[in-house]
């Protein structure tokens, strides 16, 4: 038997004589988004001495962009399930269910870890049918607000309640996420655990040193207040309220400038909405230099209607930037109102504008909030810590179910 290290033994350096365990991470698509980044890094940074890990995904589609190139560059092969698509599609869903169950049986996975709602339902059902010993699910937030009409939302709640019975653990990103699921009757209290979605912290320290250069590249003058947003340009991210807030801010702070980075289905409508603001509002498209962009900002805004945690809030915090965010989902667990940022009601452009104006007029407070945010994020929310906690969870369930004997 090969001598390998368990997650619990990594730091002690003492080897455990255990077999490698087969793990499958399942997600619908590899577009640009927090859930996809989380899943990718969970596979990339897995302890290969202990876990033999596969990444299973449907085809990547949508206007948000893709991380497929990053996955390939990391040397990770994707096990493709063509029918695993994001939108409801009964025939494809049935084909995906059958394909997943067959994969799970043939590859004899010890652990199946599903991510997001659609992959979570089909993946957990397939794992149950295939007799997978241990099943985990990470919702990465929820689909209960900002996505569907009330009838469809009720249907998804019912599906989530049923699927919760088919897994051993539900991994929430924040304590608020646990409470939200339990209030809707999804899962049991002892079934949940909280593991944040980490980020790569290293680039942000260097980006702060390049702040002046990045601002000059963006054409920002020294006396201008740069306010920005980063994310998928989709309805759930609430950027229409950001654009509306920008108009209101400019009435009080004419030296303010606004940037929005990302792509998605609302790219055209948002550009049209921001048209009257002229050169005071710039659309940057998809960016590969998010650390530099974050460090160049004076204020970061996240006006989401629904957010599991908001990894971009960690990125802004790592860059030492003051944050204004909608009080939704797990955001209050990441931004402590008045301490590491400012929280505002969702769907309230006026509240966003008032918060930004207040920070524009109080530079010392703005600086203090940014420094407090960085102290909160670094080093607690790094990728290595996230993966170690996930693997420690695996070890707990492995011992509980007596899989590794």
What does the model show?
The protein is globular. The chain has two domains: 7-198 and 382-401, Rossmann fold (3-Layer(aba) Sandwich); 202-377, Rossmann fold, CATH 3.40.50.2000. Strand 4 (111-115), helix 4 (117-130) and strand 5 form a beta-alpha-beta unit. By secondary structure, it is of the alpha/beta class. Strands 3-2-1-4-5-6-7 form a seven-stranded parallel β-sheet, with helices on both faces. It has a six-stranded parallel β-sheet with strand order 10-9-8-11-12-13, with helices on both faces. It has 16 helices and 13 strands. Residues 1-9 have low confidence and may be disordered.
Fold topology:
Elements (H helix, E strand, L loop, with lengths): L20 E7 L6 H11 L6 E7 L10 H6 L4 E3 L9 H18 L3 E5 L1 H14 L3 E5 L11 H14 L5 E4 L2 H9 L8 E3 L7 H8 L1 H7 L7 E6 L8 H14 L3 E6 L5 H8 L6 E5 L4 H7 L2 E4 L8 H8 L3 E5 L4 H4 L7 E3 L4 H13 L1 H15 L5 H19 L4
Parallel strand pairs: 1-2, 1-4, 2-3, 4-5, 5-6, 6-7, 8-9, 8-11, 9-10, 11-12, 12-13
């Amino acid at each position: 038997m090969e001598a390998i290290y368990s997650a619990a033994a990594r730091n002690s350096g003492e080897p455990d004589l255990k077999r490698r365990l087969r793990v499958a991470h399942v997600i619908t698509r590899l577009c640009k988004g927090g859930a996809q980044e989380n899943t990718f890094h969970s596979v990339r940074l897995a302890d290969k001495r202990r876990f033999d890990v596969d990444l299973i995904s449907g085809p990547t589609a949508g206007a948000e962009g893709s991380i497929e190139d990053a996955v390939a560059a990391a040397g990770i092969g994707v096990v493709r399930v063509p029918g695993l698509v994001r939108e409801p599609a009964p025939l494809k869903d049935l084909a995906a269910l059958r394909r997943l169950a067959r994969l799970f049986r043939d590859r004899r996975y010890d652990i199946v870890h599903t991510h997001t709602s659609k992959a979570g339902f089909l993946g957990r059902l397939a794992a149950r049918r295939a007799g997978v010993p241990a099943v985990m699910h990470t919702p990465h937030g929820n689909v209960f607000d900002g996505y569907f009409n009330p009838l469809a939302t009720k249907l998804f709640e019912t599906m989530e309640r049923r699927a919760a019975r088919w897994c051993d653990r539900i991994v929430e990103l924040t304590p608020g996420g646990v409470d939200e699921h339990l209030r809707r009757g999804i899962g049991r209290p002892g079934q949940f655990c909280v593991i944040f979605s980490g980020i790569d912290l290293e680039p942000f320290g260097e980006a702060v040193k390049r702040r002046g250069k990045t601002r000059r590249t963006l054409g920002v003058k020294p006396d201008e207040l740069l306010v920005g947003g980063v994310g998928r340009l989709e309805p759930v991210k609430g950027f229409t309220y950001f654009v509306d807030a920008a108009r209101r801010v400019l009435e009080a702070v004419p030296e303010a400038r606004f940037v929005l980075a990302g792509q998605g289905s609302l790219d055209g409508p948002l550009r049209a909405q921001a048209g009257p603001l002229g050169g005071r509002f710039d659309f940057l498209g998809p960016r590969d230099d998010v650390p530099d962009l974050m460090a160049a900002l004076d204020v970061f805004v996240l006006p989401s209607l629904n957010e599991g945690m908001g990894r971009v809030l960690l990125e802004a915090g790592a860059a030492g930037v003051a944050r204004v965010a909608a009080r939704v989902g797990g955001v209050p667990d990441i931004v402590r109102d008045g301490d590491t940022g400012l929280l505002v009601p969702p769907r309230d452009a006026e509240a966003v504008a008032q918060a930004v104006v207040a920070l524009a007029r109080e530079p010392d407070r703005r600086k203090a909030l940014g420094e407090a945010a960085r102290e909160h994020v670094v080093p607690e929310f790094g990728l290595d810590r996230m993966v170690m906690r996930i693997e420690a969870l695996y070890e707990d369930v492995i011992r509980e179910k007596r899989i590794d004997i």
